[in-house]
Amino acid sequence: MPMEATVRLASFLGVLMVMSIWEYWAPRRSLTVSKLRRWFCNLCVVFIDSFVLRLAAPIAAVGVAALAQQHHWGLFNQVSLPRVLTFGIAIVVLDLAVYLQHVLFHAVPILWRVHRMHHTDRDLDATSGLRFHPIEIVLSMLIKVAVVLLIGAPPEAVIAFEVLLNATSIFNHGNVYIPRAVDRALRCILVTPDMHRIHHSIERKETDSNFGFNLPWWDRLFGTYRAEPEKGHERMVIGQRDCQDERPQRLGWILRSPFLSRKDF
Ligand SMILES: [Zn+2]
Ligand SMILES: [Zn+2]
Fold first, then answer.
1. Any idea what DSSP says for residue 246?
2. Among 199, 236, 244, 252, which one is least packed by beta carbons within 10 Å?
3. Is residue 264 pLDDT above 80, yes or no?
4. Cα 7 to averaged position of ligand 2 atoms, centre (Å)
C-alpha cells in the first residue's frame, strides 16, 4: 500500500477509535436510537462513498494537483513563494471552499436534497461525520478539483487537507463531553463537537448556522456563527422534523432520500 493510502487509513481508523472510546467514557448526550443500526448504516455509506469516488473520479484532487504542478497550472505554480507559505494558504483556501460549498448545499433546494441525508441522522456521533450521500461526495470532489486547479495547490497540501478534514469531521460530530472552558479555547482554532451539534438541530435557523467543518473562523466572518442551541445541548432535538422515525436508520431509504417526493420524505 502506498504511503499516502496508509496515512489516510491510519488517521481515519485511529481518530474513529479514539472518538468511540471517548464517547463511551464521557458521552455528551444520551442516544435516542439504536447505535448498532446507525453505525451499520453510516459505515456502509463510507464503503459505498469510497467505491463510487474511485469510479467517478479515479485520479481525484491529489492527482489533479500533481498534474497542475507538472504543467504550471494555477496561481501557486506561476509565482514563487516559500513552500511552507503555499502549503498553509492552500489549506486555508480549501477550507474556505468547503465552508462556502456547505452554505450552497443548504441554500439551493436541489443540493439540499442531497445534503439532507447528513442531517437525517437522529443522533450524532463520530460516524455521523462520515454520513454523506455519494452524490455529495462526487460533487465535493469536483468542486475541490476546480479550487486545486485555480490556486495550483501543492499535492502534499491536498493530502494534508483531506486527512485533516476527515479527522476533524469525525471529531466534531463526536458525542463527547468537553469542559466548557476547554471548548471555548478550542473554538478559537477548531470547530468543536458543541459548535457543530447546533448545525444538526431540528430548528432550521440553527441548522443554517455553524457551517464550518475544520476552521471556525468562516462562520464568525460571514455571520453564520451561533454559540449555543436555544434548548441547550442535552434537550435539543437532532435530525429533520419530518423524519423522526426509523427511516433514517435504513440504508436503502437514506440513499434514495434525495429522489423522494416531499410526501414520501
Ligand atoms: Zn449541513
Ligand atoms: Zn454535520
1. S
2. 252
3. no
4. 24
